[in-house]
Amino acid sequence: MTFEEIVQAIDDFVWGIPLIVLILGVGIYLTVRLVFLPIRKLPRAFRYMFQKEEGAGEVSSFGALCTALSATIGTGNIVGVATAIVAGGPGALFWMWLAAFFGMATKYAEGLLAVKYRKVYPDGHTLGGPFYYIENGLGRRWKFLAVIFAVLGMCVGLFGIGTFSQVNSITDSVGNIFSSAPALALFGREYNIAVIIAGVVLTVIVGLVLFGGVKRIAKVSEAVVPFMVILYVLVCLVILGANVTVIPQAFAQIFVGAFNPRAVAGGIAGSFFVAMQNGIARGIFSNEAGLGSAPIAAAAAKTKEPVRQGLVSMTGTFLDTLVVCTMTGLAIVITGAWNVESLQGVAVTMQAFSQGLPGILGAAGPVILMVCLIFFAFTTILGWNFYGERCLEYVAGRKKAAIWAYRVLYIMAVFIGPYMTVEAVWNIADIFNGLMAIPNLIALILLSGVVFRETKSYFRRYPTMKSAALESSIEASAEGAACRLEGDAPPGGAEEDYIPPAELAGRQWEEDPPPGAPPEENGKK
Questions:
Q1: pLDDT per residue over 500-512, tens digit each?
Q2: Using DSSP, how many helices (H) and how many strands (E) does the chain show?
């Protein structure tokens, strides 16, 4: 067997029925138990995105979301969708949607637990994610599972989503644009010189940004992510507008193909399971719900409320899959680019852009896609370095030598990425994704009771959100008081200054007064 065949066999084993059932099962369970919270509270979640909040953490909630989106919205939204549709037919897009819908509840739970169980150092540095909610939420006897997750997280960053697949997709698109450029012998093979130059330039730029740390990554992400998403969605909307008459037919192909791929594409399509497997696997690659990566970024948010950050976190899955991936998928299906046998990877989406854009824009389609792809992949590379470093920090502690060594290895992986085959790159990424998700999904199931209690408590205290000012006012007046429902002592401990906010804490204050509360004020003699 060749290396590619071995990797494919491992990928098929990892992404078998048990893992698919686990991913969908956890999402369905959380969605039902939370009474479809992702649907009911999505507008409120989007309002929280842009509100500033004070609390422990290193970046704003919006900055944390952009860091997560920078890692989430990447080549999976362009190349991953294309490979899924080519392998499983248009129906793979349906399974992406399904995984994303239930994945919103999963992402909510991840963000909530990340903030609740994060570690805050005296200097303000925060560290959190699945490794800490596994250890602190489940207990020290589960630390082995946390370590496994952290090690796999480093591997995903170095060999999976973080480097190989992103860099390979960038250089592949550059090679397609500059296909007439001369070739140069390197590593025993000939490569397009444009690919080599692109790889070197990307390596240098990534190195410059990485050594700026998490705050620089957050700043770059906040500036780049909104721009790249808007640009890409606008281009896709132009394609859909130019082909509006075939959109109903495209949706028919998607829904029919989800359960009977051959009815749509005949013999070239895979089986029902292939469509489901590719749709869910690429969906996880794209939105990372259940993977456990996004909560690492969520833990760095400046917030005091775990539920609040959970709501912000779940918007990432909505934007990533239900918006960006849908745009890509529809563009590919309505143009029929997925049905051209000679095309694979980024070439499929390039064909969709070239064929779908009207007039002169069609000729510029591949270049436009290349620009979008560079933005997507570049920010994903930065975001996954952040994830990998946090995983390393959990395993090895805050050792600068270890962090610098990881960054050097990461930059080396970026340099190597252009010279790997497309099939091997995507299959390796899928394998590490699946393995990384397993410890996190186990923790989400075991800690689901915490998620439900925190959610119920928060929405009992804040049932509506009339304005950001009102919410901020409530939280400010409640700070350090019993409405935190955790029994904290009053600030300063001075009895004469201690005024219980009964209008906020309500019955909880009477049932469980905080330590030090004067008996005559809490009603208990």
A1: 443 344 444 445 5
A2: 27, 4
